[in-house]
Prior knowledge:
- By secondary structure, this protein is an all-alpha fold.
- The chain has five helices and two strands; from the N terminus they run H-H-H-H-E-E-H.
- The protein has helices at 5-16, 21-28, 33-43, 131-143, 184-190; strands spanning 160-162, 169-171.
- Strands 1-2 form a two-stranded antiparallel ribbon.
- The radius of gyration is 22 Å and the shape is elongated.
- The structure holds a DNA duplex.
- This is Cell cycle regulator GcrA.
Amino acid sequence: MSWTDERVELLKKMWGEGQSASQIAKELGGVTRNAVIGKVHRLGLSNRNSGTAKPAAEPKEKPAAAPKPAPAAAAAAPAKPKPQPKTEPARPVTPEPAASAEGRPATPARRQIIPAGQPLPPQPSANEISPEALAKVNEIEKKAKKLGLMELTERTCKWPVGDPATEDFWFCGLPVQQGKPYCEAHVGVAFQPMSARRDRKR
DNA sequence: CCCTGATTCGC
DNA sequence: GCGAATCAGG
């Protein structure tokens, strides 16, 4: 595939949104993350920084290294009056579930944990979760990898456990089920068919 | 191990 | 210009 106008635009957009190169590559299709990164650099829009500049440029100096003329950042394109949101505060990583201090999260973090995550499951609200599923969860949570927010990836279960305001807070981190944001056990409680306790007479 | 971007260099 | 291979890190 080639870098058509549209593809480049999508690339710019996503990169600007803080998407990772691999995610962009996936979205575009037909290219690897390397291709994306290469293109990003060629386009000159590599700096996504704003706070911490990196002065340490050349840790390894090659003999006869070409000096960098410091290409002016992409900002001179009067030809295209495109309102581009260059700066985005969006660090879309901020779960603040009001999980009860008990062992069971009342509400899984349903803020976007990963920028280009899958569509989040319908809010089960104060759904009643089947006892079996709950038991299952309690089981696996013992084996949870207890990952920190930063350790989460597209293939780690993003189910939050504990109170975010406490040290005792972590994410499941077990391998996710294909295409889902959670591991099998947590998918079980997250995606309730909403018919948990059907014919319950009580 | 999973992942991230950065750089190099043959094409 | 392109991107795989490689590097350097988290």
